[in-house]
Design brief:
18 helices, mainly alpha, 0% strand, globular
């Protein structure tokens, strides 16, 4: 089921009403969350519910065994059982054909022809998200950071929690599971905050991302016939398409969770105002970047073992992050590019700059230095986005080569419309004021702003109804 569908418009109020009718019965509330989550996921393909159920039961059982084990060797075995099963599940459905095709291609380059036996495998929606979520549970128990729950219903609800099930944020058990185990009380303020998030998330998705999608698709599909300026425009528009699409989903997920009395982690913090690649990754897909930091980068030694091993670990973390996104060399190269962009600040010990401060640093307007840093970082991010969006490595390389060929001036025209730039400026303006603090004079006009957003969403909703979220493919 999609957030931007008429089915969800019916599903959410019914779930909301039934949920709070049971507000004095925690177990019944959790049961409703579980049933609603399975219905939400099964709407796409009920057969793949079996994967969630199996993963849930296995990690619930492994969690008990890990906690009961005192011998380090036995604990490691249980931990690796969970990791191997979840990564095996993810690897088979997501990467089987990629490895087979790459193997055959490698032997073909050496003059050996092999027959590729591949399967027509359907990628279960959200498998990259819920497998990482359940793994974090067992890994935290293994590290003695968390005690397992004996409430299977609450654990199953945590694993399958429908607002963030298929595209995140990737929640840690230490944050979401206690909320499943404790009584929730309806809060009007929390519900209002949730409504604002849902409205803004729908604006990002329906008004911005879905309106940009046809333009971006046309440019990337026919890049050979477009001029350098059009190709640059295509990369920039894709940057806002994917941001509107993915951060819009996260906003809606957080908003729906607030309706039910839950608080999910913030997954985006205005990433396009970043002044460096390091800052960008502290603001983009935070739940994934912190997951890899805590469960891959730090266990490898992080930066504690010297610069050489630190550089190795940086490359590992970015390449694995790229591979997580999909079974295509374009994603791996995308991660590699970000690693190369990150290394200079890592070597210069400036990668932790701007950890807490925002671009404005207490002023109404940013400095020229900050503006230059933001634009430069945005340019680097856009260059990498070309590989992320391209269908193949050759397409990505040819696309960038065509940008660099300024003699490539065609008569092609791309109609982006007068509205799309205005919507992007509205997005940046709202985030700018959120970052700076909304002036009191504008606060009094908030209902007008909500009305404008609502009208724009309504006008675009039925035209783009059912448009997939980009991150569903991951």
């Amino acid at each position: 089921m999609l957030f931007n569908s008429t089915e969800f418009l019916l599903f959410l109020p019914i779930t909301f009403a039934l949920y709070w009718l049971l507000n004095k019965r925690l177990q019944l509330q959790n049961a409703l969350v579980l049933v609603a989550s399975y219905l939400f996921y099964g709407w796409w393909d009920w057969r793949f519910l079996s994967l969630i159920i199996i993963s849930t039961l296995l990690d619930f059982w492994v969690g008990q065994k890990l906690y009961a084990s005192t011998a380090p060797k036995i604990k490691r075995r249980w931990m690796w059982l969970s990791v191997s099963f979840n990564l095996g599940l993810l690897g088979f459905f997501k990467y089987y054909n990629f490895f087979i095709d790459s193997w055959v291609s490698a032997f073909s380059q050496m003059g050996y022809e092999m027959d590729a036996w591949t399967l027509s495998i359907v990628l279960p929606v959200g498998i990259s998200f819920y497998t990482f979520q359940t793994m974090s549970y067992t890994l935290d128990i293994y590290k003695n950071k968390l005690e397992p729950t004996r409430d299977l219903l609450a654990f199953a609800s945590f694993v399958s929690f429908f607002p963030q099930l298929v595209a995140g944020p990737i929640e840690r058990a230490s944050n979401l599971l206690p909320q499943m185990l404790n009584k929730r009380v309806f809060s009007y303020k929390q519900a209002v905050d949730g409504a604002r998030l849902i409205l803004w998330g729908l604006f990002k998705k329906v008004v911005i991302a879905d309106s940009l999608a046809p333009i971006v698709n046309e440019i990337f599909s026919n890049y050979e016939s477009h001029s350098s300026s059009v190709l640059i425009l295509g990369a920039v528009l894709f940057a806002f398409q994917i941001y509107g699409d993915f951060s819009g989903y996260s906003d809606i997920a957080r908003g729906v969770a607030k309706f039910l009395g839950f608080e999910l982690m913030v997954n985006f913090k205005m990433p396009y105002f970043s002044r460096s690649i390091g800052e960008f990754w502290r603001r983009w897909h935070i739940s994934l970047s912190t997951w890899f930091r805590d469960y891959v980068y730090i266990p490898l030694g992080g930066s504690r073992l010297g610069k050489a091993k630190g550089i190795r670990n940086v490359f590992v973390i970015f390449i694995v992050s790229g591979f997580w996104h999909g079974a295509n060399w374009t994603f791996i190269v995308w991660g590699l590019i970000h690693a190369l962009f990150f290394i200079p600040s890592f070597l210069g010990n400036t990668n932790r700059n701007h950890v807490d401060d925002l671009i404005l640093e207490g002023n109404w307007l940013p400095s020229f230095k900050s503006i230059f840093q933001v634009l430069f970082t945005f340019g680097l991010v856009n260059l990498a986005w070309v590989f992320f969006r391209a269908e193949s490595m050759s397409d990505a390389v040819n696309y960038i080569s065509s940008i660099a060929d300024f003699s490539n001036v065609s008569n092609s025209e791309i109609v982006i419309g007068k509205k799309n730039p205005a919507y992007i400026l509205l997005l940046l303006g709202v985030e700018y004021f959120i970052m700076r603090g909304v002036p009191k004079i504008l606060v009094s006009f908030r209902w007008l702003f909500y009305l404008i957003c609502g009208v724009l969403i309504f006008n675009s909703f039925f035209e783009n109804q059912g448009a997939q979220f980009i991150y569903f493919q991951f």
